[in-house]
Write a structure and sequence with these properties.
This is Ribosomal silencing factor RsfS. The protein has four helices and six strands.
Length: about 120
């Protein structure tokens, strides 16, 4: 497992820690011109949970992989938070915004992997 794949695994664990739902990873490594190698997309049921998911992803990535995001956008409203780790982009949505933007469909040429929800 390379460093980027390890970061993806670590961030997913952070999202699962705070009960993130409908987590998917999008492997963009085989697509030329993609903006990153992987995307992680998940949802939280309230702005408070979206914020907690972002905090947990940040904590896990920093503690387990020694990584910090280059930027974080959307944290003030916490309806859609984007975290940019360079090789990995993390999108944390409220369900209605995730459905509206439908990022998984935009990248349907890539390998999309559904991660099982933890109860």
């Amino acid at each position: 497992m390379d460093q980027t794949e390890a970061l993806v695994k670590t961030i997913v664990e952070g999202l699962q820690e705070k009960k993130g739902k409908n987590i998917v990873t999008v492997d963009l490594t085989q697509l030329s011109g993609s903006i990153c190698q992987y995307m992680i997309i998940c949802e939280g049921s309230t702005p408070t949970q979206v914020s907690a998911l972002s905090d947990s992803a940040w904590d896990f990535a920093h503690r387990e992989a020694g990584e910090k995001p280059l930027s974080i956008d959307g944290a003030q409203r916490a309806e859609w938070i984007g975290m940019d780790y360079g090789t990995v982009l993390v999108h944390i949505f409220l369900p209605e915004l995730r459905e509206f933007y439908n990022l998984e469909n935009l990248w349907s040429d890539a390998k999309v992997t559904q991660i099982a929800d933890l109860d």
